[in-house]
Amino acid sequence: MKFSKSIGKKFFAALAAGILSFSVGMGNVSAVDIVNIDLDEAVQRALANNRTIKRSIASRESAYWALRQARRQMGPTVSWNGGANYARGKAYDNYNDFNHRIFTNTASVSMPLYAGNRYKEGRVQARYGINSADLTLENSLQTVRLTATNYYFNILRCRNEIEVYEENVRTLQEYLNNVNAQFRAGTVAKADILSTEVRLANARQTLVTAQNDYDIAVATLSSFMLLPADTLLRTQDQLTYQHYNLNLANCTAFALENRPDVAAAEFAIKQAESGVRAAKAGYRPTVNAEVSKNLSGKNPFADTYSEGWTAGVTATWNIFDNGVTAAQVKSAEATLNQTQESAAELRESVQLEVQSAYLTLNAAEKNIATTRLAIASAEEDYKIAVVRYQAGVGTNLDVMDANDKLTQAKNNYYNALYTYNTAKASLDKAMGIPVSIDVTRYVAAEADGKSAAEAREEAALNMDSAEVPEMEDPAPVVTIDLSDAEPFQSK
Hints:
Layout: H1 7-17, E1 19-24, E2 28-37, H2 39-49, H3 51-72, E3 77-86, E4 101-114, H4 118-184, H5 190-224, E5 232-235, H6 248-258, H7 260-280, E6 286-297, E7 306-316, H8 324-391, H9 396-431, H10 439-447, H11 452-459, H12 463-466
Parallel strand pairs: 2-5
Antiparallel strand pairs: 1-2, 3-4, 4-6, 6-7
Helix pairs in contact: 2-4, 3-4, 4-5, 4-7, 4-9, 6-8, 7-8, 8-9, 10-11
């Protein structure tokens, strides 16, 4: 399935330009792919390769063939029946010229003329099945876009944490150097050196943990894009803040109109309604037309060998079926009720999802402004604490406490940026911001009687999206060669 004509060229050009060889350990050499990637490229790569999308495409393919099968049920059926049997007994004794052998060889053509709308409703259900599959595919695309976006932002967050902890290590090292100088001058106690060294060691451990978190974040995104998990990704973006003028009521209304899973739930209701009508067809008769021809046969009860044909119409009506049809109707009605309740529950869940993402976005926006001010205050507080300590009117504990608050303030700021950006991505998903097709245009086209393929083409956001997705061979499982040592992602 195509999503961007340029993404493949850009990606593989970056991939080819980024192949390097690293010498690790005792002369082991492993070729590591270094890929420069931005958010758009990460999303496009995930959309093109993710297995969730491939499963959705396979589901749509299955729905398509289910419709083809439903359409064939009202067509003619050509069959052949042949047999050879050996018979003995008094009934056959007078026909010894047959040598006690019975042969049948018959060709027939049959076609249903009336089935109480059972076959018609089967076609209706199968058609709605394709509509649901199209919308489920769009929902999968939106989910993959959100996941890839969150993974990418998590890399940026981890990178910012590394920068904060690296700066903290440098600050503590410089401060320790000053404390050592003061100790040699006899102005501070040995305990101040020891406590500062402990803080520095803890800061270095925290930095190692942050680097490991970054490595895991990169490996997670690489795996999600079906790249080898040891691929080195160089992100090209920064966590930024952009104000959005959004209204909760408008966001909710947009979501209820544009969410593909909500539209799919409505098609599921239509399927269930058709299922009720199909079950009620059991109360009606069925009529079939059939033409058969005896091509060549030996009948021991006939005086001559005969070749002939018959044509006629047969009607079947279950006058009494022991309540089977009534039970089928009740079951279909219960399925309809269940589907309606699921659709109502989904709409309520969508409203809550939109509200949650919206409130998280607003809270993160407020925190961004607050943490900016906190950083400025923490920096000033740390400078004052250092000056007071050097002047002999402050304690080493005051400096350490101020340094911790400064580090925490910086982390709070970057976490607020991360939360804001991921909340906006979640809000986009909750609202049903399209990836491939416009859901409202798709539903309108289907209501006008257009086929699923025609509705998809009319609702497509670009030419690639207009194409009916086709199944591909399963992608190979991504494995990591651990025979050689690997460089750390964070380095």
